[in-house]
Amino acid sequence: MALAVESRQAVVGVAVRRDRFRWWGPLGVAVFAGVLRLWDLPYPNAFVFDETYYPKDAWSLLQQGYEGVWPDNANQLILGVPQVIPLSGAPAFVAHPPLGKWVIAVGEHFWGLHPFGWRIAVAVLGSVSVLMLARIGRRLFRSTLLGCVAALLMAVDGLQFVMSRVGLLDGISAFFVLAAFGCLLIDRDRTRDLLRAALAEGGRAGDEVRLGVRPWRLAAGVLLGAACAVKWNGLQILAVFTVLVLLWDQAGRRAAGARRAWRSMLRRDLWPAALSMVGSALVVYVVAWSGWLATTGGYGRQWADGRAGLSPARTPLVDVPLPQVSMSWVPAPLRSLWHYHAQMYDFNTGLSSPHSYQSNPWSWLVQGRPVSMYWEQVPDGQRGCTSAEGCASQILALGTPFLWWTACFALAYVLYRWFFRRDWRSGAILAGVAGTYLPWFQYQQRTIFSFYMVLLVPFLCLAVTQMLGAMLGPEGCPPSRRRWGAAGAGLIVLAIVGCFAYFHPLYTAEVIPMSEWRARMWFTSWI
């Protein structure tokens, strides 16, 4: 009897230790990522790439509730000593919704209009994203180890690292998309638990059960609405994830004994999903414009005042002429907002001005044309440069090459697992890839950049992790198989970490000799 009690206590002790590890492991990786991202965050003391837009817009939102106009020499005045902030009350036309700039404004509220102030919020979200991916990987693969591997891979990805250290919008959007994906995974597990419990009680659970309010699915809709309120590419991701959750509902009902799973899903789940996902996203998106709506000075804010209430000639989402329809019942501020969106759509879809670092989506997975966000040539004898030919200081938005090239093979493996084995985990990863990457192929003529793919990074890391998990071998395989698989997977992870360390000077604008800079330019397209 005493021996049995001791045995049970030992089992409980092991379970407690494992339960602690499922948080301590992810937290450890997240702390590692946070230290990397926060270290020397104010450097360089400059406006990096599109920081010339968003931090100033964020400050304007903080002061006025809408984006104002800045003079041409505003950057020099803001970075000067003493600082001068030449914000004008005149409205400025901006091409992106305001939520991402409100997030940047949080840091500026506490630390002012300085590089640390406009980067800190993005850096925190980028670090938290690593923690989220560890937990998402654990839930997806049912392994804390694999979850931590996925998080470690993202912690050492150069693109996610760079985009977490600059005051741009894409890292913020990536945070909301990943958080929404995690919420949908939790919703899937809880829905399956409800269906299994109903089936155990008898009856055709798959056909009859009403699942009621699903808070995690609603949370996903809120987060995807936030992603849309940062940049419009969140709209395609919302559509893909809505389809994904409906397919999961259909499969769950079929597994729970539904005779007509598709019909049951359409009858019981379609409209609740539309309301909780699309409906909540729409509400969040409109609320994100509250500063513009609550004030009167924003660009186009009073466009509808005194007008007859006719709709725009065409919608901002579909480039098709529409008949003029009376919309006088819609409040004037909302009609003005709709008109503003038509102008934003024209700008975003018609942007074709050539840029030296623009690239085609076909080259993004292999990192064919990374974006140089900051460049300075440092003469010998200045800022620690001891090279006779001078030094370079650069921020290059380059994904860690070994990680991205490995991901190309991993995506092929994941596609195989989904198509031939019907692996739902592979389907979830591919849905993330489809929503974040594939829509860009319709903009072949538009000026677009590879750093948009920071939203894709978590799903690439999950794909690589699934492939590494397959290398380890299934449970019950011979120990020698496990050892060889672990050695191979470990070498891949070490190679990726080492590759990140090698390119780290190019991610942080470190002053390095020109010879070392040239050694890291593996392809002429990177220059």
UniProtKB/TrEMBL annotation:
Q: Where is the ArnT-like N-terminal domain?
A: 30-278
**How is this protein situated with respect to the membrane?**
Multi-pass membrane protein
Pfam families xref list: PMT, PMT_4TMC
**Every Protein O-mannosyl-transferase C-terminal four TM domain range:** 334-526
**What Enzyme Commission number(s) appear in the record?**
2.4.1.-
Q: Which UniProt keywords apply?
A: Cell membrane, Glycosyltransferase, Membrane, Transferase, Transmembrane, Transmembrane helix
Listed GO MF terms:
dolichyl-phosphate-mannose-protein mannosyltransferase activity
Coiled-coil residue spans: none
Transmembrane among the record's keywords? yes
Transmembrane residues, as ranges?
21-39, 116-136, 143-162, 168-186, 270-292, 402-420, 427-443, 449-472, 484-504
Q: Which GO terms describe its cellular component?
A: endomembrane system; plasma membrane
Pathway assigned in UniProt: Protein modification; protein glycosylation
The keyword Mitochondrion is assigned to this record: no
Q: Where in the cell is it found?
A: Cell membrane; Endomembrane system
Instruction: Return the broad EC class.
Output: transferase
> What exactly does this protein do?
Protein O-mannosyltransferase that catalyzes the transfer of a single mannose residue from a polyprenol phospho-mannosyl lipidic donor to the hydroxyl group of selected serine and threonine residues in acceptor proteins.
Similarity-based family: Belongs to the glycosyltransferase 39 family.
Question: Would you tell me the protein name for this molecule?
Answer: Polyprenol-phosphate-mannose--protein mannosyltransferase
Q: Which organism is it from?
A: Kitasatospora griseola (Streptomyces griseolosporeus)
Q: What is the lineage of its organism?
A: Bacteria, Bacillati, Actinomycetota, Actinomycetes, Kitasatosporales
